[in-house]
TrEMBL record:
<protein>
    <submittedName>
        <fullName>Uncharacterized protein</fullName>
    </submittedName>
</protein>
Length: 296
C-alpha cells in the first residue's frame, strides 16, 4: 500500500532530550516494534519527528484528532503523554496503550487494556506481535473510551431532563415511554456497576483479571492517618523481592475493612507467600492493625 493511501497512526510517547535515557528506549520501541507491526497499514507519525513548520502543540492535537489509530506509550507516566491520551479518550477513537513492565498506571486507566513489554530483544519481538494482534481486534465503527462514555452519559442525562421539564407528559404519551425506558436502562447500568465494584477475585487462581492479580487483605482497625499515594509507593517496593511484579493500584474499603492490592507481572514462578508477607508488613507500618491475607 502506498504512503498516500495509508491511514495515519499517531504515536503518543515520552520524548526527552538527546541525552535522556528514555529517548534511546523510545526510539528503539518505535523503530523495532511499532513500525514493523503497523507500517503495512499505517503511516506512523511521531511528534518529535514532525518536520513541518508551525506550532508543534497544534500539530500534535491535530494528529490526535484525525489519526485513525493512536498508540500511547505510558512508560514513566509522562504528564504530556497522559494529557494527550485524555484528549484521544475524549474523542472515543481507538487507542492502544503500551508500557514497560513495572510502570504503575493511574487508577483511572488501570482497568483498561494495556500491553506491558520487557525492554530487551525478546521483549521487542513480543511487543511487535501483541501490537499487531491488538490492532486486528479493533472495531473502528465503535466510539468508546472511559472519558467519552462519561461525557456521552452526561449529555444524554441533560437532554432527558430538559425534555421532561419542557413537556407535560401523560401516561399515554410516547415521550413518557422514552423517559421511562431511559430511566430503566440507567438503573440497569447502576446495578451492573455495583456488581462490577464487588471483589472480583476469591483465590489466587481466579484473581487473574486483565492480565493482573489482586492480593486481598482484611484488617481490624486503622490507627493513623494515611495517604493512598504514599502507601502505593511503598507497596511498589515489592520489586526488591520479586523483580517482575509491579503494583499498579491499591483500594482501601474502610467500611468493610478490606484492602485490595492490584498487581501486574505475576508469573507461575513467583512466590505468592513472600509477596503477601511484604504487602502485610507495609500495611502494618501504615497503621493497619490485625492485617490478614484473605486466603481461599
Amino acid at each position: 500500500m502506498s504512503m498516500a493511501n495509508k491511514d495515519k497512526c499517531f504515536i503518543i510517547t515520552p520524548i526527552g532530550d538527546d541525552t535522556d535515557p528514555i529517548r534511546r528506549h523510545i526510539e528503539g520501541i518505535i523503530d523495532a516494534a511499532l513500525r514493523p507491526a503497523l507500517e503495512d497499514k499505517y503511516d506512523l507519525v511521531v511528534a518529535h519527528r514532525i518536520s513541518e513548520p508551525g506550532s508543534i502543540t497544534k500539530q500534535i492535537i491535530t494528529e490526535i484528532y484525525s489519526a485513525k489509530l493512536v498508540v500511547a506509550n505510558l512508560t514513566n507516566r509522562n504528564p504530556n503523554v497522559m494529557y494527550e491520551l485524555a484528549l484521544r479518550h475524549s474523542l472515543g477513537k481507538p487507542v492502544i496503550m503500551i508500557a514497560e513492565k513495572g510502570t504503575p498506571l493511574p487508577s483511572d486507566i488501570v482497568m483498561e487494556r494495556t500491553i506491558f513489554y520487557q525492554n530487551d530483544a525478546r521483549g521487542v519481538i513480543e511487543l511487535r506481535e501483541n501490537i499487531a494482534a491488538a490492532e486486528k481486534e479493533i472495531d473502528y465503527d465503535k466510539t468508546e473510551s472511559p472519558i467519552y462514555n462519561v461525557l456521552h452519559d452526561v449529555l444524554k442525562d441533560r437532554q432527558i431532563i430538559e425534555f421532561s421539564e419542557s413537556q407535560s407528559i401523560s401516561q399515554e404519551d410516547d415521550g413518557n415511554a422514552t423517559v421511562l425506558k431511559y430511566i430503566l436502562q440507567k438503573l440497569t447500568n447502576l446495578e451492573d456497576a455495583v456488581q462490577t465494584s464487588r471483589p472480583l477475585m476469591q483465590n489466587a487462581e481466579s484473581r487473574r483479571c486483565f492480565d493482573g492479580v489482586v492480593f486481598a487483605f482484611s484488617y481490624v482497625k486503622s490507627t493513623q492517618p494515611y495517604q493512598v499515594e504514599k502507601l502505593l509507593m511503598r507497596l511498589q517496593r515489592v520489586t526488591q523481592i520479586e523483580q517482575d511484579i509491579s503494583v499498579v493500584d491499591v483500594h482501601i474499603y474502610e467500611e468493610r475493612k478490606k484492602i485490595w492490592v492490584y498487581t501486574m507481572g505475576l508469573s507461575d514462578k513467583s512466590n505468592a507467600s513472600d509477596i503477601y508477607r511484604s504487602f502485610a508488613k507495609t500495611l502494618s507500618q501504615f497503621g493497619f492493625e490485625g492485617v490478614k491475607a484473605i486466603h481461599p
